[in-house]
Amino acid sequence: MSIQPRHGFIVPWFSVIAASILAWSLAVAPASAAGRTDTNSLDRISVAADPLTEAFGARPVMPLDVGHSSKWTDVLRRQESALVSPSPCQDESAEHCFKTFWNQTLVELRPLSRAEQVQRVNDIVNKMGYWSDWDIYRQADYWATPEEMFNQQGGDCEDFALFKYFLLRELGVAPEDMRMTLVAFNDQAHMVSLVMVDGAPVVLDCVELRTMPPEQLEQYQAVYSLSEKNWWLLAAADQPAAGQVAAR
C-alpha cells in the first residue's frame, strides 16, 4: 500500500539513526558506570513481548530509562502544567479557546465506546494542518503540547501523535495501553501513536488517516517505542539482537 505524507514532510531518516545511536550510548553509560549489568531486569523487560508493538512485527531488544528521553519527559511535564493552568482566552469559543475545545471534546466523547473514542480523536486531530517545527517554532525538533498545537492549528507528526495520546488519556485510556512509536517509512522517520482497543492495538496516524491495525501498515518498521514508564529500542521479530544492555 502506497501512502503519501501530508504536505510532503516527514522527519528525515537520519533522525532514526541518530535516535538509535543516542539510545545505545545512553543505555551503555549507566550500566558501565555502575560496573555491572542487571541481567535479571533485562530479561524481564526485553524478553516479554509487548502486545502493542509486536503487531508491527517488532520486539524490544533494549530497555532504556525513559528519563533519558528528555523531549518525552518534558512534554509530559508541560502537558500536566497546561491542564492545571490553561492559557486565558479573549474569545471563549471552542474554535478559538483551547480550554473550551478540550472540555467540550471530553464531554462529547466520554459516553462513546473505546473504539468510537479512538476513531473520533483521530478524526478531530487530523483536521489540523501539517507544518514543520521550523515553520512554527524555528526549531529543528520540538514536541508540542495539545494546547500549543491547537493555538498554531497544526504541527508535525509527533505533535499529532502527542495530541491524540493526551486526549485519549484524559478520556480514561490507561497509559500502559498506549505507546508513542517511531517508525521508519520510505527511508524517513515518522511518529505514530498506538492504542489498545478491545484487546488489539490500533495505529493513530496523520499520514494514513484511518485508524488501522499495525499489521496492515507493512511499510512501517518500528524503531523505538515510549510509554510513560519505559522506553525500548525495537527490532524486527525475526532478527537477532546485536546486543542487550540493561538500563539502570
Number of helices: 8
Which shape, going by the Cα principal axes? globular
Give the mean pLDDT: 80
Major sheet: size, sense and barrel closure?
A: 7 strands, antiparallel
The span between the termini is: 40 Å
Number of strands: 9
Helix percent reads 25-40%
Descriptive overview:
There is one protein chain. The protein is of the alpha+beta class and 248 residues long. The chain contains eight helices and nine strands. The strands form two sheets. Strands 1, 2, 5, 6, 7, 8 and 9 form a seven-stranded antiparallel beta sheet that branches. Strands 3-4 form a two-stranded parallel ribbon. Helix 5 (114-125) runs antiparallel to helix 8. Residues 1-18, 21-47 and 240-248 have low confidence and may be disordered.
